[in-house]
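Summary of Year 1 activities. Much of the first year was spent building the evaluation harness for sequence design. The harness presents a backbone, in tokenized form, and records the residue chosen at every position. We chose the following record to illustrate the format because it has been used consistently in internal testing since the harness was completed.
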């Protein structure tokens, strides 16, 4: 009984500390996350330990975000299927590399590819539920984004969508409140867009669904292509790249119909195309020599740069084997 009371008391004290000190909690999480990078190469089985530290730091951040959301009255659907799916997808997002490394260490390469396939099938099926049942597109990466704690604590949980505009009763027209308008320099002078608006009113929604469907299916198609053509084949690399380009092309036709958050996610995905330079066979055949040459040149010309470029050159191939899968983008 005393133990239960003690654990409950510790949890309550921790919860109060996070709620009252969100900035300090963020600093602790940041230190924990960065410590995972310094662990790499310093101890035995450092990739596993490094990923464990990283995963725990991100899970702690996710847990603290939910505590702060609850404390400031954020409208969060604790028990809805949609929220639970997003929560599990976010947890997998933070832990999947660690899980793959542990399985590979225990059961070898076959075990690694088996668990990777299982995780991607779960992620794909869950994303399809979000897409077709809840019209959630594009699905963010991770599905539950990092909380802007300063913003939510200063606003005290007030929902921006409910306070920056209102709907006229007769015409149904959406009008922005004067206080809810952004600064003049940041205004785009476009009509107010409400979340999920495109899902219910845009006649071209089917093409947007198809664009997101291509993105969701890409990991499974890529895994199958790797199984057929091999991990170093240009065919599997080109198939994944082609699916990304096709998805972006379909999204680009309707960018004006998307909200700011949706356009931001599409931009993040486009930026992720750079990672194709770090994925085999492009990396093994071309990028490796160019990147290592540039880092070496920087180390020779910039003071103290060798302390950064040296470890990067040393572990780049190792990181490439661990992180730069097509489905991780």
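For this record, the design step produced the sequence shown next.
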């Amino acid at each position: 009984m005393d133990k239960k009371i003690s654990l409950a008391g510790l949890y309550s004290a921790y919860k109060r500390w996070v709620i009252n000190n969100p900035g300090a909690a963020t600093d602790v999480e940041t230190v924990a996350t960065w410590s995972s990078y310094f662990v790499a190469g310093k101890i035995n089985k450092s990739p596993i330990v490094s990923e464990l530290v990283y995963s725990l730091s991100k899970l702690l951040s996710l847990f603290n975000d939910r505590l702060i959301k609850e404390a400031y009255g954020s409208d969060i659907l604790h028990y809805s299927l949609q929220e639970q799916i997003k929560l599990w997808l976010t947890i997998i997002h933070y832990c999947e590399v660690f899980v793959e490394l542990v399985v590979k260490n225990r059961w070898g390469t076959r075990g690694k590819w088996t668990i990777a396939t299982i995780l991607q099938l779960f992620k794909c099926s869950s994303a399809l539920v979000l897409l077709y049942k809840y019209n959630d597109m594009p699905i963010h990466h991770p599905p539950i984004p990092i909380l802007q704690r300063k913003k939510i604590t200063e606003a005290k949980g007030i929902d921006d969508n409910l306070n920056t505009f209102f709907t006229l009763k007769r015409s149904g027209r959406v009008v922005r409140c004067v206080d809810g308008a952004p600064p003049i320099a940041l205004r785009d002078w476009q009509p107010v867009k409400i979340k999920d608006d495109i899902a219910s009113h845009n006649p071209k929604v089917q093409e947007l669904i198809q664009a997101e469907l291509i993105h969701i299916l890409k990991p499974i198609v890529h895994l199958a292509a790797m199984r057929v053509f091999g991990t170093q084949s240009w065919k599997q690399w080109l198939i994944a790249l082609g699916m990304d380009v096709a998805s972006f092309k379909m999204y680009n036709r309707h960018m004006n119909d998307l909200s700011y958050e949706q356009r931001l996610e599409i931009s993040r995905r486009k930026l992720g195309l750079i990672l194709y330079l770090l994925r085999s066979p492009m990396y093994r055949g071309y990028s490796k020599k160019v990147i290592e040459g540039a880092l070496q040149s920087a180390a020779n010309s910039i003071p103290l740069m060798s302390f950064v470029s040296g470890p990067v050159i040393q572990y780049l191939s190792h990181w490439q084997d661990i992180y730069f899968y097509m489905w991780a983008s």
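The beta strands are 165-167, 174-176. Quantitative recovery figures across the full test set are reported in Table 2.
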